[in-house]
Design goal:
The chain is α/β, with parallel strands linked by helices. It contains 7 helices and 11 strands. 24% of the residues lie in helices and 23% in strands. It starts with a strand and ends in a 7-residue tail after the last helix.
Length: 240
Amino acid sequence: MSLRLRDPGRNTGVAPEFVVDPVLLDAVSPSGDRGGIVVGSGLKGEPLTISALRAAPTRIVLVGGLYLARQVALRAMAVGAWVTIATGRPAAWQVLPKAAGNQPNGRPSPLVTIRRLSPVELPRPSEDAPLLVVTDGGPTPQDLFPPRSPWHTTVYVLPYLHPQATTIANAADVVLMQRLPVGQAELAARIWRLPPQMMRQLTTLKDDQVVALGQNLWRPLRLVTTPKEQALLGPVRRGD
């Protein structure tokens, strides 16, 4: 089953709805689509959403900077996902526990955990509590937490495309790519068999632009940051 990009005017399906703590909703603006993650806006300003939390194991590859990866994770939290971050740079991800806030007893919210890049036991995902695992392991990440069950989504954060990441890239249900230099755009064209015009488009994206790539999908979009997200992440940007 392919992961689809949806906009309000072209899709009438209803995604699952999850329950999330009101405190978190106050910290991070939720998606405008039930159960989906808004990844940006189209040419007419319409929100474009992916059903990244669904009843199937799901892989998402992000090629770009930390801004994009952290925004996707925040928006998954905002629609009720448990988020586990496996990373070698934990300080870069502290914004997520900050957004999740504390429990009434003063302890950090269990909604977000930050782990080392080593195998650990994960929470058991369910329809009521979907799980998003972010693997931030560089351009050639180990597949430590492959999605194996429904309601489990793994996001692979690639700072740039590398030939050794081809297997993970090819297995993705959807790929979100920010601007690539010419050499990496040529590699992307080889991996996904892109025609020359699409390859060239990858080299000319602006800092706030992303291409969503999937089965029968090529959709340029513009990243949009809400005021609450900007306070946490700063302005939209291509780099880290």
